[in-house]
Structures are given as structure tokens and as C-alpha cells.
Amino acid sequence: MDDQNQQGGGAPQQPRPKFQGDWTCSKCGGKITELPFDPDPSRLSQLLCRDCHRAQRDAMGR
Ligand SMILES: [Zn+2]
């Protein structure tokens, strides 16, 4: 039997795009200069810095 199942060797890992700007964390008031996502203009007042975002996620659990 031929074994011609070529499925590639997995996709190369791409660095996540980062969005740079000048935002303020709504929780700790810290400066946010980089986000892994494009912030929604209507939610700029709810932005969380990386630490607060992580803390919130941990607090929320699953
Ligand atoms: Zn914060």
C-alpha cells in the first residue's frame, strides 16, 4: 500500500499580532501600550492591563 498521506508538518508558529497604543487600565490605572487584540473603541474605558486581565480571568474561573 502506498503511504502518500502528506499532511504537512504542522503550521509554523506565528507571533501574535500586537496592537500598540496609549491606553489606561480601568482597574489599576496603569498604562497599557500593547494589546494582543484590537480594542473596541466603545470599550476603551473598560480596558484592563495584562495583569488585571489575568487576575480577572482567574477570579472568574471557568
Ligand atoms: Zn491593571
Explain what the structure shows.
The chain is an alpha+beta fold. Helix content is 18%, strand content 18%. The protein has one helix at 50-60, and strands spanning 19-24, 31-35. Strands 1-2 form a two-stranded antiparallel ribbon. The longest helix has 11 residues, at 50-60. Residues 25, 27-28, 30, 48-49, 51-52 line the site of zinc ion.
Strand element count: 2
Strand content: 15-25%
Helix content: 10-25%
- Biggest pleated sheet: 2 strands, antiparallel
Give me the secondary-structure topology.
Layout: E1 19-24, E2 31-35, H1 50-60
Antiparallel strand pairs: 1-2
Bound molecules: zinc ion.
Region (Disordered): 1-22
InterPro entries: CxxC-x17-CxxC_dom
Biased composition (Low complexity): 1-17
